[in-house]
Structure formats: C-alpha cells, structure tokens
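Long-time lurker. I teach an intro course on protein structure, and each term I like to show students one example going from raw sequence to a predicted 3D structure in token notation. This year I'd like something fresh instead of my usual example. Would anyone be willing to generate the tokens for the chain below so I can use it in lecture? Attribution to the forum is fine with me.
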Amino acid sequence: MKRLAAALFLMLTPLQANEYPWSNAAPAEITAAAVVPDTVVDEIPCDWRPVLTPLIAPLVQACTTAREAVLAISTSLGKATGAYYSLERSKHNMNVLETLREKKISCTGQSILLVCALRSVGIPARAVGVHTWNHIEGNHTWAEAWFDGSWHMLEMGESDFNTPWVMEYIGMLNPRHPFQRILAAYPLGKTTWWPKKLANAGNLANFAAEDVTQRYMELARRWYATAGIPENTQRILIDLLPRQETAPVVELVNESNDIISSGQLPTTRDDMRYFTRLTLPREGNHYLRLQGTTERTLLLPTPEPVQIIRLEF
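-- Reply from a regular --
Happy to contribute to a lecture. Here you go:
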C-alpha cells in the first residue's frame, strides 16, 4: 500500500518528489490522502495542477523547510492569484479554475485554493471546518498543512498559524452540539462531513472526514492561556434575551456574596457580537445575580475555555 501511494504521488503530481527539501517527509498514507487528490471538499473536480503549480513554485524557491514554504504560500497566495474574499462570489465552493477566473471567493474557496497550492509543491494539506459557531450565526472553513510530524492550522493571507480570532471563536464552541464539532475533510477519516441526517436542511456534502474537535479545543485552551486567561479560570460571555434598551448590571459573586467581577449586560444598541465578559474561577462555588437583587444562580465551569450564558429577561 505504501509503495502504491508513493507511485501514485510520482505519477499524478507534476513536481518530482525530490524537488524540495521537504519532499518525501510525510508518510505514504498521508501523501496519498492529502497530496495526491485533486479535490478538497465537494467542489467540481478539475485539472488545476498545470495552471496553479507554475504560480506557486516560485513562491517557495528560497524556502528550506516546509514550515517556511507554508507561510510563504499563505502570505503571497492572494497576490499570486488575484483571489480575495468577497460576499459577491457566485458560490461558496469554487474549485481552483473557477477561483482563478472569478477571483471573488468565500472562506471555503480560500481554503480550497490554499490546500491545492500547498499540495502543488508536495506539502500535505486538507480543509477543516465548523458548521455553526456558538455565539453568532455563520460557519467557517480553514486549512491544515502537515509538516514536522503533525497538522497545523492556517488561513489564506495569514503570516502565522492559529489565527487569533478563529482560536477565540473555537473556544466558545459547545463540542457536545453535533454542528459545533470540528471536522477535517480527509479520505482516511471515520466520520462524515456534516451529514444530511444531522443538518435536515440544504444539500450538505456527505464525504469522509476526521473529527478533530478535541485537538482544536485543546489548542484553543493553550491559546487562551497565552492570551491571559489562566487554565484555572474560564471566560464567561453573557447575553441578555431579549435585549433591552436599558439593561442591568450582572455580578459574579462567591459563596459569601463578595463581588468577584461585574459588567453591563448588552442592550439593543450593542452589536450582536457584543457580550458581557467575566472571568469564572474553576475552584469554589460562584453565582450570577443582577445588581440590586438577592436572587442568585449557581454557575458551574465547563471543560471549554469559554462558556456562553444567555439570560432571559
């Protein structure tokens, strides 16, 4: 099987396997699953390599490691192809040739383009996505590149891995919700990419995927720790439903009713992405109450770095 995968790689990619310093670094199974395929998710198959490879190869000529090459491609891909994010795209899942023709693409189109660009120079890559964010409407798709023995999260146009806003949003997910799982499109995966029986709406793709939720939740926890949220605490985002013109202050108190922190609840004038942000210690009993009242509600931390609380007025 390993010899067959390596042979397919040599036949199907226009680049020789020994052309780059990182060539042949990936196991044959990963190469077969994340370099050889011409499709990334459910885009229309096309012969993109003869067109895209000449645009990408010059971007990595001076790179000596796969990590350098991945970042060089990400930061230069927009300029090299003329493609950019736009709500005016004709569809969300453009293939590479459609993207090069229309230029305007969604986050899925960006991910497809980036994955194919990485594959064009022999770097294993795949698309990863979440169907529904927890705190706002919408979804997102990004890319992963394989090097140094593991997968690394990346987005088109970024100059580093683990995009901060994506890490923050991942920390707000509820991984127990089926549509807030994080899936990687991967032929060797053991689950399906947002199957219809869960969606019950639209014509969502149904192909092989790997559930990478737990790895991303751990990654988000580490990101939050570096961003100033210690692991012995949890960020609490609090919304008020329905929002009022004048909203009360919410207080986080301990067992003795000492105020730990407080904040103004969102009002009708605030953006829908605005939440009251408090910090909940993971040890001891803590409660939420509205300022000027005595009634309080026990607030238990969850394993995620962020917990979203929606209060009813």
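Some talking points for your students: Residues 66-81 form the longest helix (16 residues). The two ends are 61 Å apart (CA to CA).
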